[in-house]
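User: Some background: our group keeps a shared notebook of sequences we're curious about, and every so often someone picks one and asks for a predicted structure to add to the entry. Today it's my turn. The entry only has the sequence so far, pasted here. Could you supply the structure so I can complete it?
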Amino acid sequence: MAKIKVAHYINQFFAQIGGEEKANYPAELRVGEIVGPGMALAQNLGDEAEIVGTIVCGDSYFNENLETATAEILDMVKELNPDVFVAGPAFNAGRYGVACGTIAAAVQDQLGIPAVTAMYDENPGAEMFKDKVYIVATKNSAAGMRAAMKKLAPLALKVARGEKLGASCEEGYIPNGTRVNFFEKERGSKRAVKMLLDKLAGKKFATEYPMPDFDRVDPCPPLKDLTHAKIALVTSGGIVPKGNPDHIESSSASHYGEYDITGVDDLTEEFYETAHGGYDPTYANEDADCVLPVDVMRDLEREGVIGELHHLFYSVTGNGTAVASARAFAAEFAQKLVADGVQAVILTST
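Assistant: Of course. Here's the predicted structure to add to the notebook entry:
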C-alpha cells in the first residue's frame, strides 16, 4: 500500500534560517526535505506516511503579503500533491499561528486537501481558525514540541484517511463548536458525584461543561490629588518613533517599545508614526497625538490639572497579540512605572 504523502509548513525560525531579522524570508519549497520539527513529525507518522516536502515562509512575509504568499504556497502544495497538509506547530507565536491557520484553511478550501495545524489555545490563530481547520492544542512554547507531535501526527493520518474523528477531548484538537452525540460508559449522576468527590479531595478532575474564563481586573482606588500625580501614557495603538526602530510587529507583537518624550510637546508627523496593522494608519501617521495624546497631556501639565507627565511612554500593537503576551508585557513595564513613581496610567487604544 502506498504511503500517505505529507506536505509540511514551517516558519523561518523553525527552519533555522533566523529569528525576527529573517521574518521577511519569502516562501520557499524544499522538495523531499524534512526540516526542523519535521523530524519529530516524521518519527510520529511512522511507516504509514512520508513527508514529501517542506514549505518555509517568514512570518512577516506571509502576514504582510497575505494574498501573494498564500497564492505562492498553494502553488507549492500543488507541486507536492500531498494527501494531507500539516502546518506548524506554532505554539504561542501569534504571526506564525495566523499564518498556519490561514494557509491550512486555504489548502482545504481551494485545493480540497485535508489540513491540520497546532498551536497554543491563546494564539490568535486558534480563535480565528478553530472552526475552519482542526487545530491541535499545544503548550505555549516549543518545549512542548514532543507532546504536540504525538497528537498532531495521528490526527493528520486520520484526516488523510478520511476517518471519522472523535470528540476534541479524545483527539486532542481545540473544540470547534461542533457538538456530537455519543454514549458515555457511566451515567451522568455517577460521573458528577465522582467529579465532586475529586474536587473536595483536592484531586484533578475535568468538567464536562467548562465555563467561559473572563479576565477580570479589580480597579485601583481613585487618585486623591490629581494636581500632584505623575501620569504615564501607555498604548496598544502602536505609536513609535519614525522608522519603528524596535521593529515592533504590525500584528501579533512579540515585544513592546519604551520611548522617551522628555521635552516633546507634540507627536509630529516628522518624528512619529504607528506600526499597527489593524486600522487605517493615515490619521495616526499625520498626527500620532490622536492615538497617544501627548499634546493634551502637556496642556494639562502646564495648567496644573496634573502634576507631571512621565517622561517615558510604552507602546505595543494590540492587533492579534496573544493575551498571554500582553499580560507579560504589562507585568514587566508596570514594575518600571512603579519604580519611577508613576501613580496612574492612561491606556489608549485605536
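Suggested note for the entry: The domain at 4-171 is CATH 3.40.50.2300 (Rossmann fold). The two ends are 56 Å apart (CA to CA).
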